[in-house]
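Why does residue order matter? Because the sequence determines the fold. Keep that principle in mind as you read this record.
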Amino acid sequence: MASTITKHVAQTRAADGADALPDQNTGVWDELAIPGAQPAPLLVSATWTNASGGDWSTASDWSNGATPTASTAASISLAGTYTVTITTADTAASLLLNNTNVTVLDTGYLTLTRALKITAGTFELGYASNIAGGTISTGSSGTFLAEGGGMFNVTYDGTLNMGFRNAGLAMGGTIAFAGANGSGAGALNLTGVGAGINTYGVTSLDNATLNIGGAGTSNSITLYPGSVDATLTLGSKLDMVQSAANSSATIDLDFYYGHTGTLINQGTITAEASGGTFSIIDPYEIGTFVNQGSILVSNGDTFTIAPLTWSNSGSISVTGGELIATGVWLRRHIYQYRFDCRQRHRRAGRVSKQPDIRCRRQHHHQRQRRDH
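Structure:
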């Protein structure tokens, strides 16, 4: 799946003309009369006509008699209860769902250049399916279900809910979030029992509050290398929060045929779950963690940093929780700090000095580097 990331370049609002807006009924994008604005490409409107549902690629089920293409503004609003299924690699400029009783089931690969707007109804991203490009948004009667598919180079407006059992999603490229109607920050709730996210290749998440860990449940984000190393960057506007009591949150730096994972935190990670655990793990002892942002541990939570190598040019604060650090803490310049495992306290800098901070020794002598 990692190879798909290189095939789909992120399509942003700017690329489509910042002054273009979709018609709420047809999904067709029109140009506003703003001096100097570049005309948005003209789109062909196509509406679904089969009240019994069917396959997306059946041309006769569309009002214009043709399967949607990259220049089609498709809409599915016909009354009735039915399912439209995407089974192959299909494309549209935009898709508007506006029927509470309709389900679009993506088991193939849908590429959008503009937007998926779910005003009413359900878009179900099935196992091993993908959606690439464009902006996804949901109305008060709209639902986006992530059930094992992939999302690549997408902007998501509003709250992406993965709060149901075994919710799964693969991510790659630039995943940006925004609030409702594209304003402010968005949200991602990774809280369902067994729910998890896998990232492939170079991935970034930004401009959202990512709630991880439901009460008494375990949730994970796994960096999966393929033909290239996997790098996940948590952007400067990304707040990852674990707050549900007795929850378990894990970020796993996986390994595959010589390729490994690197986690870069530029935002804020808050571990404040009473009785909870938050772990950055490195099972194959080859991954890297780079903290350029903030880590806040409190309320009896335990935060473990276990990658083979990790560095800190940001800040780590522990108040009423516990930090367990293993691996090699790289000291590249005077603004990075490390624990002394022998003295079990911080030596200097912006790592909060608390009696409940400890550094666990590695078993292998070559990993027990010290600064004297």
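The first strand starts at residue 20 and ends at 22.
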